[in-house]
Amino acid sequence: MVENLAEVIEGGTRDQQSDSLINELSNHFEKCQQLLNSISDSLSTKAMTVEGQKKKLEESEQLLNQRRDLIANYRKSVEDLVKSEP
After folding, report:
1. How far is CA 38 from each of CA 14, 28, 43, 44, 48, rounded to the nearest angstrom?
2. InterPro entries from the xrefs (predicted)?
3. Could you give the number of structural domains in the chain?
4. Which end of the chain has fewer CB atoms within 10 angstroms, the N or the C?
5. What is the pLDDT of residue 86?
């Protein structure tokens, strides 16, 4: 298609065939542009999703560490109580 258009342009004649080739190329370009935009949007959405999941994972790890600390403190308190009883 591009070669045909190049031949028409080199010939210096502009006719219905060259106009139709230009329109066809423009349509293909628009479809490619839409596809690229769609891919770009999809990648952005996935990146946001991954970032959101990463943040949730970090929050979960933080809560888990706090829970471990609380359990360790509780265990220590119970052990201290048991030791202090006669």
Report:
1. 35, 15, 9, 10, 15
2. Med9_plant (IPR038790)
3. 1
4. C
5. 66
Is the full-model pTM beyond 0.85? no
User: Are the C-beta atoms of residues 5 and 18 closer than 8 Å to each other?
Assistant: yes
Q: Which DSSP string corresponds to the chain?
A: -HHHHHHHHHHT---HHHHHHHHHHHHHHHHHHHHHHHHHHHHHHHHHHHHHHHHHHHHHHHHHHHHHHHHHHHHHHHHHHHHH--
Contacting residues for 9 by C-beta, under 8 A, at least 6 apart: 18
Question: What is the mean pLDDT, run by run of 10 residues, along the chain of 86 residues?
Answer: 70 69 86 90 81 90 95 90 78
In the block, which residue shows the tokens 């949007």?
Answer: 41
Predicted confidence at residue 5, as pLDDT, reads 67
| Residue 73: domain span | 2-84
